[in-house]
Amino acid sequence: MHSPTREVIFGRETMCFWDLCAPWLEPLRGPNGLDLNRLKKDIQPWQEWCSAEYMTHAPLGSLNFLGGVATEINVVNYVSPRSWLATFHFVLGFFIFVGYLCHAGRARAVTAGFEKGIDCDFEPVLSMTPFN
Known about the structure:
Distance between the termini: 104 Å
Number of strands: 4
Number of helices: 3
Strand order of the largest sheet: 1-2
């Protein structure tokens, strides 16, 4: 039983499943459905394209694998200007946030009367003679 547009529709009320006929799946079919030997040994053009696409868009510091073999290390020691800028903004934002929390905590403590501050009546500077 197939759908009119030849696509998979899962479920429905009767739970009948239609078959998928896709151009990338047909070369992998055997006489009894998907052939696992073909799936393991025959490399399709779409698989080559996906692996090449992955190798060009892999994250920094990752190993590139192609067929289970590590082909290259993807630029571990190079940090792009975009990464520097993003890291700088994250660190700067983190310290500004911590400073904001410290300032808010001290302001609340002063308002509640817990932090009195320095008593300026007995400062030694007040008894010194001023400069000419």
